[in-house]
Design brief:
The complex is a heterodimer of chains A (about 550) and B (about 80). Chain A has about 550 residues and is mainly alpha-helical. Chain A has three domains: about 160 residues, no CATH class; about 180 residues, no CATH class; about 130 residues, no CATH class. Helix content of chain A is about 75%, strand content about 0%. Chain A has 20 helices and no strands. In chain A, helix 2 runs antiparallel to helix 3 and helix 9 runs parallel beside helix 20. Chain A is globular. With about 80 residues, chain B is mainly alpha-helical. Chain B has a single domain, classed as ACP-like (Non-ribosomal Peptide Synthetase Peptidyl Carrier Protein, Chain A). The longest helix of chain B has 15 residues. Classes of the chains: A mainly alpha (about 550), B mainly alpha (about 80). Chains A and B meet through helix 5, helix 12 and helix 13 of A and helix 2 of B.
């Protein structure tokens, strides 16, 4: 393919990977140079232009969704803000006893506006993403009922990253309504917040208060930010190209090819997929953070070493943090804060005590969160199952907390004991891997089948060179993955202890620093899973 | 303040509420305790605690909780 053809609308598919040569050797350097030579007061507009250029290259005319979404939240924000201002002006003139009633009228108006905004944005996402799933299931139901009516299953073109920028748009408008932020009257600042190119494909889902001002008040590229940013991108490449992409063939063989692998091989496949997904997604996040850092932007971290988690609940506070935080702030707390829920909590606490009392309202809210979480990942029953699986695990964890604490006390087991914590970490890991097996399987039925075979025929007797050869991988792939995982594990343990390796290295002499940087680059070049005509495998989370 | 500490002790005993300044960050109050606490505070102080107020900064100490209550009472 001609390079020039990649720079046409919707043709720059390679850009969907921040590890593609097109991105790393052409788009990013061009942005850095363009940004540097652009006069200071125009740098923000350069970033906006680069972001829209990026989106146009990967999505073509579908960029219209992003434009409309931005205009829409801009207008809704101003609308809500105007009602607030009017309310403040009017309430300040009223005696205190009349204020409550007057305020209720304005709040009602604001609620109507925010409801309309949320329905429009989430509604569009629902129609584009879920209507085929919905109509397919309705058709299935109709045929089961013996009715010959059949709805046409719609098919829509969706821009990449719509799930991410829609959640960002909703968080902006709700935060304006809640008074956390002021409505932005500058459409360009809001557009840059919505479209910043490194994060548009896979997040993180940023809040306006986290990044909008940073992006608008851009500063010149500094040496430290440039080197730290490049290091972070390289670290992401190590995860993505050396580990995630190298595991692809084996994972695909276990999950996609109809076969009769024994349980042990399926278990290895599930572990490999979990590792692949983590390395792919967190590696991509490293590239996002690194790119942003080059321009002096600090993005909120999306991962915090999730596989050191002792419980499933903790795991989800460390994995895809921005999505979990979005569900917490815009679904969990609003549901538990609803008047009826508060009444339920008060009365249940009196009857069931301090732990189980609030657990009822908390569990209803958790159910909503996990149903949405499952659906957010895709329109299929297997994703809904995935959400419900984690909901049930968290619910069981919450229910068992008091008896487990009582048993530990009786047996004099200290929960801070290293072995105890290690066992908790291993248990959480196993539960996560089982969840990922269903997540990756081609449908819920296939997931059930794989899981059943994994537990009923658990053996490794066929896991040998012959089997690997049939999948076109060999033991060296696993050795390279294993060594690289050890490197990442070491870095993660140090990070977990609060040691920042990049800061420590920055204090060493320049020769050692550059030797290490080149060593990392060489390691990626030598052991990366690619060959001639290489194009990295698309980031896995871009499809959500 | 005394009444607030009573409510807190009723929900989660064995914490030094008079001096503790990291009730959330130090994991002394779980998310379930917060759900109970919000319901109790609303009933006791005749306030509405919106979701936006449920941030660690507002719940890390009895003093911070009291400040939030006073602020919400002051609102129209």
């Amino acid at each position: 393919m001609q390079l020039s053809s990649l720079l046409l609308a919707g043709q720059g598919k390679s850009l969907t990977s921040l590890f593609s040569l097109l991105y790393l050797l052409l788009f990013l350097p061009a942005c850095i140079i363009g940004y540097t030579v652009t006069p200071k007061k125009w740098k923000r507009y350069f970033l906006l232009l680069a972001s829209y250029g990026f989106f146009w290259l990967i999505s073509g005319e579908l960029v219209i969704y992003l434009i409309l979404s931005t205009f829409s939240v801009h207008y809704f924000g101003i609308w809500i803000d105007r009602i607030s201002q009017k309310m403040k002006a009017q309430l300040s003139e009223l005696p205190k006893e009349q204020r409550k009633e007057a305020k209720a009228g304005f709040v009602k108006k604001q609620r109507a506006v925010i409801t309309l905004a949320v329905v429009l944005h989430i509604g569009l996402l629902l129609v584009l993403k879920y209507s085929p799933f919905f109509t397919t299931n309705v058709n299935l139901l109709l045929s089961k009922l013996g009715l010959s009516v059949k709805l046409t299953v719609p098919s829509y073109l969706m821009p990449i990253g719509i799930s991410f920028f829609t959640l960002q748009a909703v968080s902006y408008i709700v935060d304006v309504y809640r008074g956390v932020i002021k409505a932005d009257d500058n459409i360009f600042r809001l557009a840059l917040f919505m479209s910043f190119f490194p994060q548009i494909i896979e997040g993180p889902i940023c809040r306006y208060s986290e990044t909008a001002e940073q992006l608008w008040n851009v500063k010149p590229i500094e040496y430290k930010n440039l080197t730290f940013g490049i290091q972070r991108i390289l670290y992401g490449m190590l995860k993505k190209i050396v580990i995630a992409d190298r595991l692809t063939l084996f994972v695909n063989a276990v999950f996609d090819v109809k076969n009769d692998y024994e349980g042990g091989v399926i278990a290895i496949g599930a572990v490999c997929y979990t590792v692949q997904l983590y390395m792919d997604f967190s590696g991509s996040m490293d590239a996002v953070m690194g790119t942003a850092q080059i321009f002096g932007i600090t993005m909120p971290e999306n991962f915090q070493r999730p596989f050191f988690s002792k419980t499933i609940s903790e795991f989800w506070k460390r994995w895809h943090i921005s999505l979990g935080a979005w569900f917490r702030d815009y679904i969990f707390y609003p549901v538990t804060s609803a008047k009826k829920m508060k009444k339920l909590t008060s009365s249940a606490r009196k009857k069931l005590g301090n732990h189980y009392g609030p657990l009822i309202a908390g569990s209803i809210a958790l159910f909503c969160v996990w149903f949405c979480n499952g659906l957010w990942h895709g329109s299929a029953w297997s994703f809904i199952f995935f959400g419900m699986y984690h909901f049930v695990l968290i619910l069981i964890g919450n229910m068992l907390e008091p008896p487990v604490q009582a048993i530990n006390k009786k047996l004099h087991i200290d929960p801070k004991w290293f072995v105890y914590r290690l066992l908790q970490i291993l248990r959480t890991g196993v539960l996560v891997v089982i969840g990922e097996l269903f997540f990756r399987a081609r449908g819920l039925k296939a997931g059930m089948d794989l899981f059943t075979r994994m537990v009923t025929n658990f053996s490794f007797s066929t896991f040998d060179d012959k089997l690997l050869k049939s999948i076109v991988v060999d033991r060296y792939d696993f050795i390279i993955v294993g060594i690289t995982l050890l490197i990442i594990l070491t870095v993660s343990i140090l990070n977990e202890k609060g040691i920042c390796i990049r800061e420590s290295l920055a204090k060493k002499n320049i020769v050692l620093r550059w030797v290490l940087l080149y060593a990392l680059l060489l390691y990626i070049i030598i052991f990366g899973a690619y060959g001639l005509g290489y194009r990295p495998i698309d980031p896995m989370y871009a499809q959500y | 303040m005394e009444r607030l500490i009573e409510i807190l002790e009723d929900i989660q005993p064995d914490v030094d509420y008079a001096n503790c300044t990291d009730l959330i960050d130090g994991h002394y109050l779980s998310s379930l305790s917060i759900i109970s606490l919000i319901a109790e505070l609303e009933e006791e102080y005749d306030i509405t605690i919106p979701a936006v107020e449920i941030v660690p900064d507002n719940f890390n100490s009895a003093e911070r909780i009291m400040k939030m209550i006073e602020r919400l009472q002051e609102e129209y």
